[in-house]
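Let us work through a complete example step by step.
Step 1: write down the sequence.
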Amino acid sequence: MNWFGGGTTNFSDIYINPLNFYYVTWQNFTLNDSFIIGNNVNASTDLTFQITSTADWLSISPQNGSISPGNEVNISITIDTSNLTTGVTSTFITLITNDPDETSIQLPLYISIPSFKLVNLSLYEGWNMITIPVSTGEDLTADSLHSQIPGCGIILRWNASSGDFDLYAPGAPYNFAIENGVGYLVSVEYDTNVEFMGIPLQSVSVPLHIGWNMLGWFKEENTTTSSLLTNITGCNIVLLWNASIADFDVYVPGAEDRIVKPGTGFLVAVTEESEWHGEG
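Step 2: predict the structure and record it as tokens.
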């Protein structure tokens, strides 16, 4: 135990565990923890305390109380990172007590939010067209992606050079890399979700071949099918998979525009070769 006590014991005598707090977490997350305030068994009177903090993202309960000698109280803390930015954020938890040796105590609290992001993709029974919009720090393959997706049956990759799909299923001899900025058709047996933790992609480099190409929208903001068609070199058709009808929504100039969310795969037809870096 981290004892703060050790002073005069003919009054109240506080001890605290731990004396500081350091968390590594991510944005839009609620973190719960606790610490202990105790009154030394040899103290001769109750310990009274009051806890304050100036951080609006930190909640503490209880904020005050009284502890008899030899007893302790568990203090709950809740941290809401919704409005915190990446990097390190710090504050102090201040305790005011009637311990004559420690009337005012400051406990440092640090939160480190790296530029990691948790991505949750919703998949529906049947076919889904997805992309992985973060760099997970590992070399994903069709085999490893298949193992991460609950109820996954088949993964398809469009092969522009052959004009057909490459197929991966358990036991199949052909495995392929999962690449940034590329879309994949994934079949699942039931509605499910899959999560990926990683650093958001900033740019990709995907070669576009004349004809059909399967891409993936990796940016953190939504785009539209009309924006993709306008900004992708030589693009004249965009196909967006619609799981609710198990068919493609077709976008050509004049058709109904569709929203394309992060993590969504799509097909584009182009009339010239180029490199796609995320235009759209």
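Step 3: interpret the result. The chain has a mean pLDDT of 92.
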